[in-house]
Amino acid sequence: MRLDKFLCDCQIGTRSEVKKIIKAGRVTVNGTTPKTADIKIDEAKDIVCIDSKTLKYEKYLYYILHKPAGCVTANKDNLHKTVMDYMPNECKKDCSPVGRLDLDTEGLLLITNDGKLSHELLSPTHHVSKTYYAKLDKPVPQDAVRLFKDGIDIGDEKPTLPAELDILDEDFPSARLAIYEGRFHQVKRMFKAVGCEVTYLRRETFGSLTLENLPKGEYKKITINEITGITETTK
Ligand code: URA
Predict the structure, then answer these.
(1) 3-54 belongs to which CATH class?
(2) 102: Cβ below 6 Å to ligand 1?
(3) Fold for domain 62-231?
(4) 187 lines ligand 1 (CB under 6 A)
(5) Which residues are catalytic?
(6) Pairing verdict, β 71-72 and 81-82
(7) CA 177, CA 167: separation in Å to the nearest integer?
(8) Ligand 1 centre distance from Cα of residue 184 (Å)
(9) 10-residue block means of pLDDT along the chain (235 residues)?
(10) Which of 10, 117, 144, 157 has the smallest CB count inside 10 Å?
């Protein structure tokens, strides 16, 4: 790969910025200072330094964001803040959210520039598990557990895939729901089908990924190894 592409992939700067950095003699490849940006390097073997600091090649970036309510799951929006406003600059160029959470939904969102993985995780054939905590306007009827388990008609061509409902509290109506697909407004529509309105929604897990103690509005960089676990939690 060309040295300038390598430096861009490492989020050092734009093509023209990294060319200037190389010209200024701030970059070394295996201890020698290249004169031009078009030399070829082997990203697996060569040691590339900038200002004497060794660069670690990362073609793909993966982050978890604890999305707050009030921002849209998009790269740009004219009206609202977007989830990307919470992300570091290195992530803003090529990364996008995997799937979407509604404007008023909080919780775990995976953000990456790995388009292939993103496509796989969103594909209807990969039934990645997603767990949601919901508050409701009234107690969830007990038969919702069986209805969700069997698959419920939410007005689409097909009923939903079997889902696991755990009714948590009747005095302060709340529930936890695990689903294995990602239809538009799916959780809200499932509860609506049993007569309940969702008043608060938070996604707690996405496959093997969890929010742990990540505060709302903050992100965490994760590794591909943590992601590959995602598909192991499918049904
Ligand atoms: N289901 C919904 O209804 N909304 C979300 O944001 C996510 C899942």
Answers:
(1) alpha beta
(2) yes
(3) Pseudouridine synthase (3.30.2350)
(4) yes
(5) 102
(6) parallel
(7) 9
(8) 7
(9) 91 90 96 94 93 90 97 96 93 90 98 93 89 98 98 97 96 97 97 98 96 96 82 51
(10) 157
